[in-house]
Write a structure and sequence with these properties.
By secondary structure, this protein is α/β, with parallel strands linked by helices. The chain is built from 7 helices and 11 strands. It has a single domain, classed as Stationary-phase Survival Protein Sure Homolog, Chain: A (3-Layer(aba) Sandwich). Helix content is 26%, strand content 31%. It starts with 6 loop residues before the first strand and ends with a helix.
């Protein structure tokens, strides 16, 4: 292996055998040595959850010159944390990529997403990190038209690392992609309801509401107009405007 090649750590929340991560790997291997550490099973909606109640393990699935695959029994964030502790003690990855998720992680979905959560963990560890998602929910994804875009984004970030504390949340519409739009996260919410599963349990259901459907600078608007959305997110969740107001109000 060429030690000068970038090392790219890939994970997801759909599992190491998911179609999205397979297609992402084929693109990423063009830009560096790929190490996959992904969940053994579906871990959607885990956000930044970590496992502390059961032992974590990584199982080597396969290994070749440019791709090594491990399956982990934990969450997406567990995959990143455990791999950094065990596999990358001497040399950290140059890039952490999460995805390609089967389903949208735009707008408020980024709060709940295990895909985005894994990218956040990479960012916390001062590694440039990207989350990729597609609005397609099918088990078999048709991503041929977006793979060149993914390749270009990876190339750009490898060449020019992201600012510390910033990650990219990238989402693709179904079908045609007219352009790539750099935008902000839309103000939206889920109206959550629960449907009976049996006599004493329920399943989560709900409806998505975009509070600003006409705002042309948001990810939801871009996706609804057949554009890929790229939203830079911050790990620092401090509301600096309100902090300033509080300090002014209380004379600090």
């Amino acid at each position: 292996m060429d030690n000068n090649r970038p090392i790219i750590l890939i994970t997801n929340d759909d599992g190491y055998e998911a179609d999205g991560i397979t297609q992402l790997t084929e693109v990423a291997r063009q830009h560096g040595k790929v190490v996959i550490v992904a969940p053994e099973q579906q871990q959607s909606g885990k956000s930044c959850a970590i496992t502390h109640s059961v032992p974590l393990r990584m199982r080597l699935v396969s290994e070749s010159d440019d791709i090594t695959i491990y399956a982990c029994n934990g969450t997406p964030v567990d995959c990143v944390k455990l791999s950094l502790y065990t596999l990358f003690r001497e040399r950290r990855p140059d890039l952490v990529i999460s995805g390609i998720n089967h389903g949208s992680n735009a707008s408020v979905n980024a709060v709940y997403s295990g895909t985005v959560g894994a990218a956040v963990e990479g960012c916390v560890n001062k590694i440039s990190s990207i989350a990729f998602s597609s609005l397609q929910y099918d088990k078999k994804l048709d991503l041929g038209n977006v793979l060149p875009i993914i390749s270009q984004i990876i190339e750009d970030v490898v060449r020019t690392p992201l600012p510390l504390g910033t990650l990219l949340n990238v989402n693709f519409p179904v079908g045609e992609v007219k352009e790539v739009r750099f935008c902000r996260q839309a103000n939206a919410r889920w109206s959550e309801e629960y449907v009976p599963h049996d006599t004493d349990s329920f399943l989560l259901a709900g409806e998505f509401y975009n509070r600003e459907p006409d705002a042309e600078d948001t990810d939801e608007w871009a996706l609804s107009h057949h554009m890929a959305s790229v939203v830079p997110l911050l790990v620092d969740r401090t509301d600096y405007n309100y902090l300033h107001k509080l300090n002014y109000k209380y004379g600090r």
